[in-house]
Specification:
By secondary structure, the chain is of the alpha/beta class. The protein has 7 helices and 8 strands, in the order E-E-E-H-E-H-H-H-E-H-E-E-H-E-H.
Length: about 250
């Protein structure tokens, strides 16, 4: 695995990012990795590295670049109290609309790499990143073949930039992995989101894991190793089927 630290110029400034490539040096399809609210930290880097070692060129942008320097945070410490006190100011600097606004810069960077295979790319997002991945794919639908959301929240709200509003534009296939008893994605919201996808003719699959919101993250207090491994197997199979390697 090769790891590069880069900076991508976006309409709002300079976005630090991490780029991971497969260990065999042969490159692969590109995947944009949308972080959770905990920001860039060792666990996020480790997950992006694992995805790269499965055969993908993985771009992990720092979605908090508009805020400036921070952390890294230890989620187990952050979640001992009201996480919004610590993370709220950072979360306020980003969102679905801003993720969509940044996507052209990310794609331009990936297009400039000789080790990226194919023009259509994938995205995976966790927690707040799930909605961002979907929104970005709706902004440039012709470029995305596959988008996965793990314990993504607020996927269908009344907000102008709610991810479900991108359904009519999507060309990507979606995999939606929800958590049980997730206040950020209750059953009625899931129904609204899936109806939007169905009405728009989007190919998707959704399933609810017997785990808590955030279960995929190895540094979260709610990390569930068995459910996380199931999630990884589903994600890798999804990308293997949808992202061309030629």
């Amino acid at each position: 695995m090769a790891h590069e630290q880069i900076v991508i110029t976006t309409p709002d400034g300079q976005c630090p990012a991490h780029l991971f490539t497969p260990a065999d040096g042969q490159g692969g399809p590109a995947v944009i990795f949308y972080m959770d609210a905990g920001g860039i930290r060792p666990a996020e880097l480790g997950m992006a590295e694992r995805l790269a070692n499965a055969g993908y060129v993985v771009l992990l942008p720092d979605l908090y670049y508009r805020y400036g320097a921070y952390g890294p945070f230890d989620p187990k410490e952050v979640f001992k109290g009201d996480f919004r006190v610590i993370l709220g100011p950072l979360m306020a600097t980003t969102g679905n609309a801003k993720a969509a606004a940044d996507i052209d810069a990310y794609i331009a960077y990936l297009d400039g790499r000789s080790d990226v295979h194919g023009k259509r790319i994938g995205a995976v997002g966790f927690c707040m990143g799930g909605g961002m991945a979907i929104s970005a794919a709706g902004k440039r639908p012709e470029r995305f073949a596959a988008v996965a959301s793990f314990h993504g929240g607020n996927l269908a709200t009344d907000a102008d930039d709610s991810p479900h509003r991108a359904a009519s534009a999507l060309q990507a296939e979606l995999y939606i992995a929800a958590a049980e008893n997730d206040g950020s994605y209750p059953p009625e919201m899931a129904e609204r989101f899936e109806k939007a996808l169905t009405d728009a003719g989007v190919t998707f699959r959704s399933e609810t894991y017997p785990a808590k919101h955030g279960w995929m993250k190895p540094d979260f207090p709610v990390y569930d190793e068995a459910a996380a491994e199931q999630g990884w197997q589903q994600l890798l199979a999804f990308f293997e089927r949808t992202l061309a390697r030629d």
